[in-house]
Specification:
The chain is mainly alpha-helical and about 90 residues long. It is built from three helices and no strands.
Length: about 90
Amino acid sequence: MIRLLRETGLPLDNTPLIIGIALEAKDMMDSTDESVRTAAINKYTDRYLAFQEARQSVQPAPQCVPAEASEPANPPADSPTLYYEEMG
């Protein structure tokens, strides 16, 4: 989850901001007004789905190539090729 939060661009080193955001969301989720709670859930779900769609459109697909057929483990320093390494 921390990796996903980093991808949002939130300043994770700003603890008061992050806790404030979480508490504000919790207040909406704990609301006795069902319409407020439902609206918050729908809003957060829609934003999450949009975030996931954007991530999938930018991330390269993992390659299924045998290790011996892939790029060299240590490319030359002057090589213009960018190497993708799946973070798992």
